[in-house]
Amino acid sequence: MESTLYKLVASFFLGGLLSLVTITNPLSKIPLFASLAADLDETAAKREASRACVYALALLTACLFAGVAVLETFGISYGALRVAGGLTVAVIGYRMLFGTTEALFPKPAAAGAATGFAFFPLAMPGIAGPGAIATVIGISTEIAELPSGALRATAYAATVFSILATCLLMYGVFRSARVVSRWLGGEGVNVVSRLTGFLLVCIGVQFVASGIRSFVAGT
C-alpha cells in the first residue's frame, strides 16, 4: 500500500509538473513581464509578480477541484473548452507576433497605480491560461476514477503541489525577467516575443483542431 502511494504521488506530481511547465512555457513570459513592469520600481514589480503567482495558484487549484463540476453544470463539452482555449491562445500569439501586445496587455499608468497587471494578463492567461486550465481539469477526471478516497486525496495533494511548484518557478522567472531582458537587449526581446507569438498561434490552432475533432466524434 505504501509503495502504491509513493508511485501515485510521483505519477501525479511529476506528471502534473511537467505538463504545466510545458503548457505555461515560463521562458515565454519574460518579454511580457519585462514590458509590463518597465515603468515599475523593483518593489512594485516584485509585488505584481508575487500576486500573479498567488492568483494563478488559486485559479488552477479551484479548477482542479471544481472544473469538471462547472463544465457539467453549464453543459460545456471538452471540445468546446479546447476550441475556446485555442482561439484565446491564438489571438494572444497573433498580437505578440505582429507587435500589437500593447492593446491586449496595457501597461499600468505609473508605478504604484491603483490598477495593476497581476491578475490580467500575468495570472490569467499568462500562467492559468486555457491550456493550463484544461490540463488540471483533465487531471481531475483521472483522479475521479481512482478506486478509493485515500488514493484520490493523495492524488489531489500531489497535483496541488505540482501547481505550487509551477507557480514558484514562474515567480523566479518573473523576478529574473529584467536581468534576462537586459542581457538579450531590445532586439533579442523582440525576437523572443515574436517567436513565442508564432508558437502560441500554432498551439492555439492545435487546440482548435483537437476541439473540432471532439465535436465530430460526438464526445
TrEMBL record:
Give the matching Pfam families.
Answer: MarC (PF01914)
Q: Is Transmembrane helix included in the keywords of this UniProt record?
A: yes
Q: Please name the InterPro entries in this protein's record.
A: Multi_antbiot-R_MarC
Localisation: Cell inner membrane; Cell membrane
Alphabetically list the UniProt keywords: Cell inner membrane, Cell membrane, Membrane, Transmembrane, Transmembrane helix
Mind telling me which residue stretches traverse the membrane in this protein?
A: 6-23, 52-70, 76-97, 109-133, 153-174, 195-216
What is the protein's membrane topology class?
Multi-pass membrane protein
Keyword 4Fe-4S present in the record's keywords: the answer is no
Question: Where does this protein chiefly localize?
Answer: membrane
Q: Name one GO cellular component term.
A: plasma membrane
Q: What family classification does the UniProt entry report for this protein?
A: Belongs to the UPF0056 (MarC) family.
**Record-given protein name:** UPF0056 membrane protein
Native source organism of the sequence: Azospira restricta
